[in-house]
Specification:
Shape: elongated
Number of helices: 3
Keywords: Membrane, Transmembrane, Transmembrane helix
Organism: Chlorella sorokiniana
Order of helices and strands: HHH
Transmembrane segments: 33-53
Protein name: Low CO2 and stress-induced one-helix
Largest sheet: none
Amino acid sequence: MRQYFQSLKLSETVEKSKVFGWTRKNEISNGRWVMMGLLVGLMTEYATGVSFIDQLKLMGSYMGLLDLD
C-alpha cells in the first residue's frame, strides 16, 4: 500500500514539473493568451474601423512577410 501511494506522489510530482507539452496549466495559459489577443484585435477594430483580417494583413506587410500591392 505504501508503494502505491509513493508512486501516486511521484506521478503527481512529475506532472507538476512538466514545462512543455499538453498539460492542464499550459493549456489554460495558452487559452488566456489567445483570448487576450482576440480582445485586443476586436478593440482595435472598433477603434480604427479596420477589420481583424485586414489588421493581420497589414501586420504581415509591415513585418515583410506579405507583399500587398
